[in-house]
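Annex B, item 7. Sequence and C-alpha cells for protein A, then protein B.
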Amino acid sequence: MASEETIINNNNAEKSSLMSRVKKECLSCVASVQEGLTHAKATLVGQAQKMTSKNEEEASQADLRTAKAQVEATDAAEDAKKRLQST
C-alpha cells in the first residue's frame, strides 16, 4: 500500500513539474509574440511620424523614437523571460 502511494505521489510530482514547464514555455512564447507586436507597432508609428515630418530633423527624431521603443520592447520581453526562469 505504501509503495502504491509513493508511485502515485511521484506521478503527481512529475505531472506538476511538466505542467510548470509547459506553463513557463507558453508564457515565454506570449512574451516573444508581444515583443514582436510591439516592434511592429513602433515601426508603423515611426514610419507615420517620418512621413508627416516637415524637415530632416523631425524625421531623425522619429527614427530615434522608433529605435527607442523597439529597444524598450526587447528589454521588457527579456525581463519577463528572466522572471519566468527564476521562478
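Protein B:
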Amino acid sequence: MSLPDEECCSTLAVPFCVKSAAIPTPPNARSVQHEDTAITKSSDTRTPSSYMAVLAAAFGMISDGYQNNIMTMVNVVFKRLYPAVYTSAVSTRVSNALLVGEILGQLLVGVLCDRVGRKAGFVITTSLIVLGATLATVAYGAHGSVAGLFWALSIARGITGVGTGGEYPASSTSASEAINERTIKQRGPIFLVVTNGILSLGGPLAVSVFLIVLSAAGQDHLSTVWRICFGMGILLPLSVFYFRMRMLSPRLYREHAIRHHVPYWLAVKRYWRALIGTCGTWFLYDFVFFPNTVFSGTIIASIIKDGDIKATAEWQLLLVTIALPGVYAGIFLCNPLGRRRTMMLGFLGYIVFGLICGCAYDKLTHIMPLFIVCYGMMHAMGSMGPGNLMGLVSAESYATPVRGTFYGISAAIGKAGAAVGTQAFTPIQENLGKRWTFIIAAVCGTLGIVTTYFFLPDMTGVDLAREDDEFLQYLIRNGWQGEVGEVIEVITEDTSSTIEKHTNTKE
C-alpha cells in the first residue's frame, strides 16, 4: 500500500513508512539516514534525553520510598496521641489507603505509559504525589473530629498512592529503555542503582527526618511532628518536576510503541508464563515485606520498655539500615549470578531468617540487638533478591509496546499482596502470636523459590530491542495489522517540528 506523501522502505519484512514533512534544517542539526529516508534530527536530542530519563526515574523512586516508609513512625505517634480512636482497624485502613491508591496508579499509569508516552506518566505521578502529600499535611476532621482526621488522611494517602504507584511503571520502563540505549551488559546493575538502590534510601531518610523533627519539636508536640514529616514528602517530587516536563520518552519507546489497536490478547498468549512469574513473586514478596515494614515500629515499641518513641525510632533506623547492604549485594550479583538465581537466593533468606525469628521469638526479644539484627537480615535478604530484582525482571520480560501495562499489572498484584498482608498482619498476631508473622514469611520464601524457578525468564545480557523485533514478527505471523512507533519531536533553538514515524503492518 502506498500513499502520495509517503516514502517506504523495507524493515523487518514489513513496509516502513515515514510521512514526509517540510522541516527546515537548523545550523546545529545533523541528518540521520534510515534506509533511503532522511530524517532531520537535532544533534543534542538523543543524549540528554536518555540521561534525563534515568535521573527522573531515580528521583521518583526515592520519593516513593519516603512515602512508603513514613507511616512506620507516624503509626507509633498516632497510637500515642489517639489510643482510643486509632484502633487496629483504623491503623490498617490508613496504611492500606496508600496501597489501594498504588494498585490503581500502577494499572492506570502502566497503560498510559504505553499508549501516550513515558513522559506523560512522569508528569501525572509527580502531580498526584504533591497533591496527596499536601492534603495529608493539612488533614483535619470536621469540627475537630479525630475520626474525621483519619478519614481525611485515608483519602490523602490514597491520592498519594496513585502517584507513587504510577512511579513504578513510569520510572522503571523509562529507565530500562534509556539504559539499554547506552549499555546492554550493565543495564541490570545501573537500573538497580537508580531504581531500587534509590528507593531503599527512602526508609532511612523517612526515619531520619522523623528523628530530626522529633528532636526539634519535642515529644510534647507530636501533632507538629507528623504534619512536618508529611510535608517533607512534598519537596522530593517538586524538586524534579521541571526536569520531567522537559524530558522526552526513550528512543526504544519512540521506535517501538503501539499506540492504537494494541493486541493485548496476543501479548498475553506470548507472555503468560512470565506474567505468572512476575505477578506471583511480587505478590509473595510484598505480602511479607510491606506489613513487616509498616508495623515494624509498633513491633519494636511493644518490646521496648515504656514504648519510648525516640528509642523506637532509633531501633527502627538501625533496622532499615541493616537492610541496605542487601540491596547493593543484589546489584553486584544480578549479572554474575543472573536474575533468577539472585531472586531465589533472596527468597532463601526469608526461609532461614524467618524461621530463626519465628522459632526463637521469645528468646530473641529479650536480647534486643540480636533480634534487630536477625529481623534486619530477613529484610536484607529479601531486598537483595525479590525486592531488588522484581522491578528489573518485570521491565525486561516484556516487549516495549506492552512493557508499561504488564509491568503495572505485576506491580499492582504485588501491592495487592501488600494490602492482603497488611490486613492479615494484626489478626495473625492476635490469634496466632507475633512469631507466626515470621514463620509465614518463611513459607512465602519457599513458594517464591518455586515460582521463580518455573515461571520467570532470565534476560541477563539480552538486548531489549531484540525482544521488540521478535514480538513484532510474532504479531505479524498471527495476522495483527497496525502501526508501530510514535511522533518524533525535533527541537531546535528557534523551531519545534514533528514528524510521524511508524511501521505499517498492512499490505
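Comment on protein B: The domain at 46-466 is CATH 1.20.1250.20 (Growth Hormone; Chain: A;).
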